[in-house]
Write the structure tokens for this entry.
Amino acid sequence: QVQLVESGGGSVQAGESLRLSCTASRSEIRITDMAWYRQAPGKSRDLVAVSRRDGRTDYGDSVKGRFTISRDNDKNTVYLEMNDLKPEDTAVYYCNDRFRAYWGQGIQVTVSP
């Protein structure tokens, strides 16, 4: 069974940085697009960033210029570098295999003012 396991979340203050990691087991991410989503309490799950298998990346408008998605296919891992964090970035962040609809369990990111 394929598993996506996120790590690297936590609590920080506004302006600080965090790096999330998502490692896939029993799956090769090189053949798929990978994405990060987030969901704040009472809100929908929104797309944050996409890493396409051809190397292209896309970002949600609210994180452009602050977040960077990257991948290491040899390690089967996708990363989300989050800089200049804001309180509105507080959410549960989910890793997603876009072609096969696999999801991670989610990891909490909390940003205090």
Observations:
- The two ends are 40 Å apart (CA to CA).
- The chain has a mean pLDDT of 96.
- The longest strand covers residues 18-25.
- The CA atoms of residues 48 and 62 lie 8 Å apart.
